[in-house]
Amino acid sequence: MSRTFAYCRVSTADQTTDNQVQEIAAAGFAVTKARTIVETVSGSVSAKERKGFARLLDKMEAGDVLIVTKLDRLGRNAMDVRATVEQLEAAGVRVHCLALGGVDLTSPAGKMTMQVINAVAEFERDLLIERTNSGIKRARAEGKKFGRPSVLTDAQKSAVLGLLAEGMSVAQLARQFDTTRQTIMRIRASNQ
């Protein structure tokens, strides 16, 4: 006989999983408290690295059903969600997502839904990369400098090079110019 589990996650301690638990009950799923895993962990942490989710995996067996309110409860991005659903499917666990009409993500219709979501996520990621690269290119054309500002002025860098040529040590120069040895070594390397 299959058992039903619920996985409810929030990102911060000032949030609560109560709404997720209520949504699952309102959708008609009777999940006992012992089979409801709640945890507070950032969505940036992949499912396989979450302690609560690991406990859930240990409890579930083939034929069981996992309920989540939204896909983002399962993973940090579309790729992570897909890997998590595939892992559960390989273990014989069906995954239902309420936000997608309660569709079983391991069924043919659910797999198609996941593919569409993955395609949209990949498209959005590509658009974001394209916009970012375009913005960087425009900013460079306008003369914008990227990276951290230099610790030393051009005049100080010239003085460092002159003192290095006279034989002063990197450590002495770092103390004299109130900077790190790495900064002095980068200046030396950029002149070679």
State the main characteristics:
192 residues, elongated, 5 strands, Rossmann fold, alpha/beta, 2 domains
CA gyration radius, whole angstroms: 27 Å
What count of domains describes the coordinates?
Answer: 2
The strand count comes to 5
At the first level of CATH, the class of the largest domain is Alpha Beta
List low-pLDDT spans: none
Give the fraction of residues assigned to helices.
Answer: 40-55%
Structural class: alpha/beta
According to CATH, the fold-level topology of the largest domain is: Rossmann fold
Distance between the termini: 73 Å
The share of residues in extended strands comes to 5-15%
Number of helices: 7
Order of helices and strands: EHEHEHEEHHHH
CATH architecture of the largest domain: 3-Layer(aba) Sandwich
Biggest pleated sheet: 5 strands, mixed
**Overall geometry:** elongated
Q: What is the arithmetic mean of pLDDT?
A: 89
